[in-house]
Amino acid sequence: MKKTLQIILKSLATILGLVLLYVISALIIPLIPVKKKATKEPSTIPIYIYTNGVHTDIVLPLKNDQMDWSKKIPFDNTVSKSSDFNYVGIGWGDKGFYLDTPTWAELKVSTAFYAAFWLGDSAMHCTFYKEMTEGEDCKKIMITEIQYADLIKFIDSKFDKNKKGENILIPTKAVYGKDDAFYEAKGSYSFLYTCNTWTNDGLKVAGQKAALWVPTDFGIFYHYQ
To answer: What one-character-per-residue DSSP string does 18-73 give?
Structure first.
């Protein structure tokens, strides 16, 4: 009986220790910066990093000479079916977390567990915007055409495709508004690789300031204060 109790206590201590290590790492490592890469090319393309308090998006020009996102993310897949937009926000994350947790108040233990331990599928969340306003939840970044090309490849490669090479729409009513839609994605979400980790990696790919590693939006926006 004593041995069983000791095993249980040691197991609990190990779990608590790992949780504490994760929390400390999540607070400290995001403060370590990855510097912006130097370039001689002019930074002419505006992108934004945006957070709703839970999920972060990379917001891109809807159309330019390099990419017309409306061809890959059709307006007809939104509730409004409007087309008078100038930007599209794209984020990657756990499908269950995305669909069931638009705000922290709606977080369920089962959703968090499945998302944390590689048990769910992933999704892309795409939202159209007419304009972007900078603030604490939205930061503007200017990048070069080469950096944008790299960012396009990074983002587009995360969408799961059908046999025609088209993005696969997730038919659901669990959208956040009238101008967004969800698509199937590649990869697995976990407590080590979250939606914010993906956004942070996107910034690295585009040669922009980023955190060494980050699980939350705080670590991203810290470097853009």
So the answer is: HHHHHHHHHHHGGGSEEPPPP-SS---EEEEEEE-SS-EEEEEESB-SS-BGGGTS
Which amino acid type is present at position 10?
K
Q: What is the rounded CA–CA span in Å between residue 19 and residue 55? A: 22
Tell me, rounded to whole angstroms, the distance of Cα 169 from its chain centroid.
Answer: 17
Condensed to tens digits (0 to 9), the pLDDT of residues 170-213 reads 987 767 889 999 999 999 888 889 999 999 999 999 999 999 99
Q: Find how far residue 47's CA is from the centre of its chain.
A: 14
Are the C-beta atoms of residues 26 and 20 closer than 8 Å to each other?
no
Q: DSSP readout, 113-135?
A: HHHHBT-S-EEEEEEEES----B
pLDDT surpassing 90 at residue 76: yes
Answer yes or no: is 14 within a domain: no
Which pLDDT score, from 0 to 100, does residue 96 have?
A: 78
Structure-token match 């370590």, residue found:
32
Q: Are 78 and 87 in contact (CB under 8 A)?
A: no
pLDDT of residue 206: 98
Residue 107 counted as domain residue: yes
pLDDT for the residue numbered 118: 47
pTM over 0.85: yes
In a domain? residue 51 = yes
Q: Which domain holds residue 174?
A: 43-224
Q: How far from the centroid of its chain's Cα atoms is residue 89's Cα? A: 10
Q: What are phi and psi of 102, to 5 degrees?
A: -70, -25
